[in-house]
Design brief:
The protein is an alpha/beta fold and 373 residues long. Helix content is 48%, strand content 8%. A five-stranded parallel sheet has the order 2-3-4-1-5, sandwiched between helices. α1 runs antiparallel to α5 and α6 packs parallel to α7. The longest helix is centred in the C-terminal third of the chain and has 20 residues. It is flat, with a radius of gyration of 24 Å. The two termini are 36 Å apart.
């Protein structure tokens, strides 16, 4: 995967590592002449700096220019030499150098992490880049990890400075809720959102289909005007307890709306601004008017997590937590976690396998932290 700082053309100020580097540099060096000297050493034929801008704005310009010219790594190498004795600066540089692409992340917070998601990662990477497919369906049994795929999708969106929208039960239970949530995320007042005809002779939307078409057309118009992208995750599109006889979790009109929304993604001028992740999409197959190239499908499996996936997670956790542990210790620990999940204690025996692994893993990590404190 491309390095999120050294193989991009725009400096990612929205990432924590980017914010930290910028803040530490503007504190460490405020002399305009010295900043320019550092900048000039990073590459030849760089654009001139706005020297009258002040040191804070100058460092902003330095980071932007060097990133667009592929020379940010040179700056990091130079800073490590010139500020060799200043640990805070070295830590900030180290964090940038070790930064991972959002699509590679396993740890999203203290309680949210993904162990095995190779298949979903590959599919999500494709729909979030410039592939033809813009829609991803995620199917699978209950508690098999479907919803966790959203964290990868949302993390990539945030890395690209794109607004992610998550729609789920019980917050969005009707198609009206869904449409309002999408428009609200774009800063649109309720009075400006297209409505279904409720007796107003001036309202041409006499059917749901006509209404959904106007909604999608309006979304395209707004996105084009604003120049902003919106990526949407629609969850809980399946049936209660995966049983069709029990009925859908959400109003089925929500699924119908997104099936039309997906058709609009065949239009490049619409797809430029939107992506769609449909979780627990229950219907077998897809609408007959969907083109094969426009969508992808994956299915999650609660048995997919193996010891090697736990080992990979533990190695990343060790690095983030700065724990001094041998690889063999991590391998042994991973084996214990998988074995215990297969023969769990009574208090977690009724949980799904991913939930058991999560519970056991977090318990083990908490134990390591307690021993170290």
């Amino acid at each position: 995967m491309a390095h999120p700082f050294f193989e991009v053309i725009t400096f990612p100020f929205n990432r924590e590592e980017g914010k930290a580097l910028y803040n530490i540099l503007k504190q460490a060096e405020k002399n305009i002449a010295r900043i320019r000297n550092i900048y000039d050493q990073c590459a030849a034929n760089l654009p001139s700096l706005t020297l009258s801008a002040g040191p804070d704005n100058l460092w902003d310009e330095v980071l932007r220019n060097l990133t667009s010219f592929g020379a940010l790594k040179n700056l990091c190498d130079l800073i490590k030499i010139q500020f060799a004795g200043q640990q805070l600066i070295l830590d900030a540089i180290n964090a940038v150098e070790k930064a991972k692409s959002a699509s590679e992340k396993k740890i999203f917070s203290k309680d949210i992490f993904i162990l095995d998601c190779d298949g979903p990662r590959e599919a999500i990477n494709k729909i979030t880049e410039d592939s033809t497919a813009k829609v991803l369906l995620i199917r699978g049994k209950k508690k098999s990890g479907k919803t966790h795929c959203r964290y990868i999708f949302e993390s990539i969106a945030k890395e690209k400075d794109i607004t992610p929208v998550y729609l789920y039960d019980p917050v969005t239970t009707t198609v009206e809720d869904v449409i309002k949530s999408i428009f609200s995320s774009m800063g649109v007042a309720d009075s400006e959102i297209p409505k279904l005809n409720t007796g107003n002779p001036l309202n041409k939307n006499t059917t749901n289909y006509a209404w959904y078409k106007e909604v999608c057309t309006k979304l395209k118009q707004l996105a084009t005007q604003q120049g902003k992208k919106t990526w949407i995750v629609a969850d809980d599109l399946g049936y209660v307890d995966d049983d069709k006889e029990l009925g859908p979790i959400l109003d089925e009109e929500i699924r119908r709306f997104f099936e039309l929304f997906a058709l609009f993604l065949m239009d490049p001028s619409f797809a430029k601004y939107f992506r769609l992740l449909l979780i627990s999409y229950a219907e077998q197959g897809v609408p007959t008017n969907w083109k094969e190239v426009m969508w992808m499908e994956i299915s999650t499996d609660e048995n997919s997590i193996q010891q090697i996936h736990v080992e990979g997670f533990l190695k990343e956790w060790k690095t983030e937590e700065k724990k001094d542990m041998l690889d063999q210790e991590l391998i042994t620990l991973a084996g214990e976690i998988i074995a215990l999940a297969a023969n769990p204690p009574a208090e977690i025996a009724k949980l799904s396998r991913p939930e058991r692994i999560h519970r056991i893993l977090t318990g083990k990590l908490d134990e390591i932290k307690r021993r170290a404190s």
